[in-house]
Amino acid sequence: LGFFVGKEDHIPTDFNEIIGAIAPRPVWINTPTLDRHVNPDALRKCVDEARGVYQLYRAGHALSLETPLGFNRFTSEQKKGMVHWISSCVN
After folding, report:
1. Which of 3, 36, 55, 91 is deepest in the core (most CB within 10 A)?
2. What is the pTM of this model?
């Protein structure tokens, strides 16, 4: 990916396909709405596209997207949510 420094928009990777390739295993995505490195609408679209693959496996519940209001930081409340999500996947 070093060849794309300064040209990140040209990276030949479709994240919806990467997430879909993980199916049916659990994926939890947490990105704050004010993260300057993420386009929330594009991420939501990407996850929705990958969700189709999860649904083929009847594992739609295994793909989770959290978009809390905030900046790029991982709060104690978000950590609790992550632990709860992991616990629900294990049991």
Report:
1. 55
2. 0.75
- Give the tens place of pLDDT for each residue, 8-52: 777 767 889 899 999 999 999 998 889 888 888 899 999 999 999
Q: Annotate 14-83 with three-state secondary structure.
A: CHHHHHHHHCCCCEEEECCCCCCCCCHHHHHHHHHHHHHHHHHCCCHHHEEEECCCCCCCCCHHHHHHHH
Looking at 43-47, 64-68, 73-77, which range is the least confident one?
A: 73-77
User: Are the beta carbons of 82 and 43 closer than 8 angstroms?
Assistant: no
Alpha-carbon Rg for the chain in angstroms = 14
Please state, in angstroms and rounded to a whole number, the distance separating the CA atoms of residues 87 and 91.
6
